[in-house]
Amino acid sequence: MSSANPETYSRDVVRSARVESILDFASPSRPLYFRSGDREIVGIGEHARWVASGPQRFATLGRMWNDAVAMAPPAMRPYLHAFGSGSFDPNGEAFLIFPRVTLIRRGREMTTVTAGALDSASETVRRPIGPVPVVEWPHIDSVYRDRVRTALGRLDSDFGKVVVARAITGHVVTPGDERAPLAKLSSGYPDCHVFAVEGLWGASPETLVRVNDRRVETRVLAGSAARGHDPRSDANAATLLANSAKDRDEHEYAMQSVLTALAPKCRSIVGASTPFTLRLSNVWHLASDIEGVLRTRTSVLDIIDSLHPTAAVAGVPSDRALATIADIEAIPRGRYAGPVGWVDGTGNGEWAIALRCAQWRETDIVAHAGAGIIVGSDPESEYDETELKFRPIREALTR
User: Is 161 an active-site residue?
Assistant: First the structure.
């Protein structure tokens, strides 16, 4: 674990310029990046890093972050940002990275924040985005359907849902610019959270939690269907999904798990009784937005531990779902389906669930995708759903 030197904060600089995108400021290798809506954040270098583990890992990181922020001038604190990520396993590790330089774009306005002396002025130079890496995905006969059948055999009146994931591993034939797939995801999935943190990258449609002052928001996704091939079949797919008892039941499990976790922290909370159909480039989802007002001004990092893992990525009840996942999934999830996002010096921030994502490794890449299994799930249909969810990563790596 490293800590920030309080003397370096006097060198922080804030300046503004008009820009359209800041992804080309990021490193071509292992970029540090988060984009949602009209906000983009790029981190350059590492001023400090904090690591924590266990069920209260994000709250622990929050205390470490607050201690560092307290050393900064009050006027600077809203501009200080740290990127973070954590394993799917709530007992595993999570970390925060405080960059040496942070670039923040809102609309066409960019703010640059510097913590400490730069090693080189070239750290903040824009670099053209190069070609995407070339990845081969070997075909391997999947045993996923058998794992779904195993999961179905464990469900009972007290164990209503479990999310079963599978992994695919690709070989990096030709290294490339790791910003290139992020640019493609930003273009193809503008309504998603596009992120890259320590080699984990993707475009997640699911907001774990967003905090702005005392307002808290989250988006629940559970229940999926493939897009149609033409307007009529596409509309029919959305209608069938909205009326699917199986998908509505799966969505209700996820919705209630989030409401139960957030309610004690909120003086008011609102969630629609009926989900809406969310259209993405390749899939329809059942979605519900939940909004609330926190009882006290609370850091986003103090909320994550109570929300994760949601029923949308684990199951209900959580303990039995986690035990089943650990038992039947062949490749550990790592940070897939874990929290990923950012926090600022006032406790505001935005965290997604790391879905539609992949992890760069030394010479290969591994991607995960899962489906919610409840009574009545069909193994073949669930396999097809995972194939749909792999599509954003595969397409982003296509030249």
Answer: yes
